[in-house]
């Protein structure tokens, strides 16, 4: 690979040089890549939008972006940024050198102490997710990576759910997951608690770590499902009695009595040898050089750009269904806000009110019409201006925004 600072002609977005293929799925490929500016190794997940057969899968992609953007934990794979073209989406992620936990297990089962270490890290990550309203729903060794120090990293949030997907009955209802790791209440199709489902999967993973095989397995899928539903499994003779007891609480077929994350953290087997939660900075993507500017990250951009095509941001975009418009400017946020206020004050019927740090609300004195204008930092050189009609007449919006404010901002 070329030296740092020398940008190859074929570098992705002029920033990343793609390397070897790390993995391949039905709709995505994962490559090792290098940031040509810093030399940092990254993994880039490339999703071909044309190969996504339905809108549900595109929703999964959007959800994965949204979820990973809010997670920053030492045992969760970090998502650095999202890039996109008209045909492809690129997840630029932390490169985890050790590969899949599944590959390590193929070489032989783990000792009880090593199983405990991995399980502790898994629970730390899963508990963190749950505290932020995120449920993974597809935990399995194939979705767990190991770094060069042997520390675990949870990946692949494509099937994750968030609290706003919970129905009025307080349950999730989407059937998902990998058959051998699926919880019995999902098979019952009566709705389920996302946190309890993840705990069940963690129990399966712990069993696999120390036993070297699945607790519920059969060539006939229906037979396997019956075993899961009844909780029929056997522990190998080398398992300690404490681990067997602990597994029985994790693999409790009744979600109401199944052990919780809080109870796991207090369990004697789990705490053997001492356990401390990792200390880390929970701030994610904070740019200390821009302390006073509302930060707009790549995950927000996705929602601003039709069809996940970020190139559309560099042209005017307007959504008539919401009277919401975005465009990119190279002016400073301070200057833009001042310009909005200046134009608004010339319209004597408008009341001007600051909103957040870099936002302005404009309203008619009688409250019959309003516009909200917010400026977000995109890069050091660029910002995104968002304008939205908040109330009142569409014709008045067009007159004030398109004929007076916007032209002033685009000069």
From TrEMBL:
Q: Locate the NAF domain: which residues? A: 291-315
Q: Where is the Protein kinase domain?
A: 16-270
What EC class is this? transferase
One GO BP on record is: signal transduction
InterPro entries this protein is in?
Kinase-like_dom_sf, NAF/FISL_domain, NAF_dom, Prot_kinase_dom, Protein_kinase_ATP_BS, Ser/Thr_kinase_AS
Q: Which CDD domains match?
A: CIPK_C
This protein's UniProt keywords: ATP-binding, Kinase, Manganese, Nucleotide-binding, Serine/threonine-protein kinase, Transferase
Q: Which reaction does it catalyse?
A: L-threonyl-[protein] + ATP = O-phospho-L-threonyl-[protein] + ADP + H(+); L-seryl-[protein] + ATP = O-phospho-L-seryl-[protein] + ADP + H(+)
> What family, per the record?
Belongs to the protein kinase superfamily. CAMK Ser/Thr protein kinase family. SNF1 subfamily.
Write the protein's name.
non-specific serine/threonine protein kinase
From what organism does this protein derive? Hibiscus trionum (Flower of an hour)
């Amino acid at each position: 690979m070329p030296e740092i600072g020398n940008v190859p002609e074929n570098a992705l977005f002029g920033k990343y040089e793609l390397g070897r293929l790390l993995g391949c799925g039905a709709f995505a490929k994962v490559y090792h890549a290098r940031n040509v500016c810093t030399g940092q190794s990254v993994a880039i997940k490339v999703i071909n939008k044309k190969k996504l057969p339905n809108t549900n899968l595109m929703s999964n992609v959007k959800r994965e972006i949204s979820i990973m953007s809010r997670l920053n934990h030492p045992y969760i794979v970090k998502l650095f940024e999202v890039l996109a073209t008209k045909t492809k989406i690129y997840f630029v992620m932390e490169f985890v050198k050790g590969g899949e936990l599944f590959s390590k297990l193929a070489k032989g089962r783990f000792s009880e102490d090593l199983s405990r270490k991995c399980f502790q890290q898994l629970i730390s990550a899963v508990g963190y997710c749950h505290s932020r309203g995120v449920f993974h729903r597809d935990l399995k060794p194939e979705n767990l990576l190991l770094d060069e120090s042997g520390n675990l990293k949870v990946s692949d949030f494509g099937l994750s759910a968030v609290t706003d997907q919970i129905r009025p009955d307080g349950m999730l209802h989407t059937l998902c997951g990998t058959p051998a790791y699926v919880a019995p209440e999902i098979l019952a199709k009566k709705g389920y608690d996302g946190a309890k489902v993840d705990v069940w999967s963690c129990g399966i993973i712990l069993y696999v770590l120390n036993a070297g095989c699945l607790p519920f397995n059969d060539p006939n899928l229906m037979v396997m499902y019956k075993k899961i539903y009844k909780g029929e499994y056997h522990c190998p003779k080398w398992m300690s009695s404490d681990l067997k007891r602990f597994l029985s609480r994790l693999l409790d077929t009744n979600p109401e009595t199944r052990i919780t994350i809080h109870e796991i953290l207090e369990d004697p087997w789990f705490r053997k040898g001492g356990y401390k939660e990792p200390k880390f900075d929970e701030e994610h993507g904070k740019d200390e050089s821009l302390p006073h500017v509302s930060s707009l990250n790549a995950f927000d951009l996705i929602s601003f750009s039709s069809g996940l095509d970020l190139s559309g941001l560099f042209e005017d975009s307007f959504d008539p269904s919401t009277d919401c418009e975005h465009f990119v400017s190279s002016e400073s946020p301070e200057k833009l806000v001042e310009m909005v206020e200046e134009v608004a004050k010339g319209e004597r019927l408008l009341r001007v009110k600051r909103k957040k740090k870099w936002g302005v609300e404009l309203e008619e004195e009688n409250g019959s019409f309003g516009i909200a204008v917010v400026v977000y930092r995109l890069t050091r050189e660029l910002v995104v201006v968002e304008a939205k009609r908040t109330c009142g007449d569409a014709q008045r919006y067009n007159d004030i925004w398109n004929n007076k404010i916007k032209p002033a901002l685009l000069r």
